[in-house]
Amino acid sequence: MKVAIVTGAAGGMGRAITDRLLADGLQVVGVDIDGAALLTMAADREGFTPEAVDLTDPEAIADLFDRVTTRFGGVDALVNNAGTCFMS
Fold first, then answer.
1. Among 32, 49, 50, 86, fewest CB within 10 Å belongs to which?
2. What is the per-residue DSSP string for 24-60?
3. Full residue range of the structural domain in which residue 75 is found
4. What CATH number has the domain bearing residue 52?
């Protein structure tokens, strides 16, 4: 079983990428800051694991990878689709 992580999975391109990977038979860990949207997606997508994570927090990212590797044994693909903007 191949495992992919898709960031920004809850909307737009992230949702489309997630659906394509699921259709291709991958297990998909969908990561987004919008936990409610992820849970809605999980309700009708077999093979989808929702993970509400703030990707601006390095510790939260490390915890995410710990959970994913513990559950699935590793990650085969990362789609880094989430966008962040830092204003100074």
1. 86
2. TT-EEEEEES-HHHHHHHHTT-TTEEEEE--TT-HHH
3. 3-79
4. 3.40.50.720
